[in-house]
Amino acid sequence: GNDLAAFLFGHRITVHGNAQDGVGNTMDAGEVVVHGRAGDVLCFSMRGGEIYVRDGCGYRTALHMKEYEDKRPVLVIGGTSQDFLGEYMAGGIVLLLDLENKGHQANFIGTGMHGGVIYLRGSVEDCQLGSHVAHSPVDQSDRKVLDHYITKFLERLPEVASRREEIINSPFVRLTPRSKRPYSSLYTY
User: Is 3 within a domain?
Assistant: First the structure.
């Protein structure tokens, strides 16, 4: 149901089918593998652990995802996302593979983002991004991160493992915040 793996601290959960809204809400450690699609607010306030979803996900994915102490949350999506991906994201790694080659249709990606990184396989238009998000091609250090998490994704979801070379050799875009305080002008200090 909703909020599967909320506050998860170190277990592995496998879903054979689709997952509902709120998977990984405030997750601290562990792993979730979804052999299907995930709903809205996936990884809300997630601060550690890893989530792998074979297909796409809903709105406001990785909302307020953040790193905590030595923990770095990771989300790998085989498909694409709806609007507001990475909204107010403060840390962690989000990776969208667009395995159906539909192209990224989401808008307002990274609105309010002030930490972490989002990797998109393929391309994205400037008009789809929040105003405080910078995009650039990936470099060699990014490629190491991508290779590591794509390998883990394919190990956990063997039904798509035959596409490894196609995925690894595809172009990726890196999205990062332009500022650590995108709305500082609204604060009194």
Answer: no
Q: In one letter, which amino acid is 171? A: P
pLDDT at 128: 97
Residue 169, domain member (yes or no): yes
Residue 117 within any structural domain of the chain: yes
The set of long-range contacts for 64-68, using a CB threshold of 8 Å and a minimum separation of 24, is: 64/88, 64/89, 64/90, 65/89, 65/90, 65/91, 65/92, 65/94, 65/116, 66/90, 66/91, 66/92, 66/115, 66/116, 67/91, 67/92, 67/115, 67/116, 68/28
pTM of the model: 0.94
CA distances from 59 to 51, 73, 166 (A): 16, 18, 27
Residue range of the domain that includes 26: 9-186
CATH number for position 61: 2.160.20.60
Q: What's the confidence (pLDDT) of residue 180?
A: 72
Q: Going edge to edge, which strands form the sheet with 172-177? A: 9-15, 29-34, 50-53, 74-77, 90-96, 115-121, 172-177, 133-137
pLDDT (tens digit per residue) in 93-147: 999 999 999 999 999 999 999 999 999 999 999 999 999 999 999 999 999 999 9
Name the domain count of the chain: 1
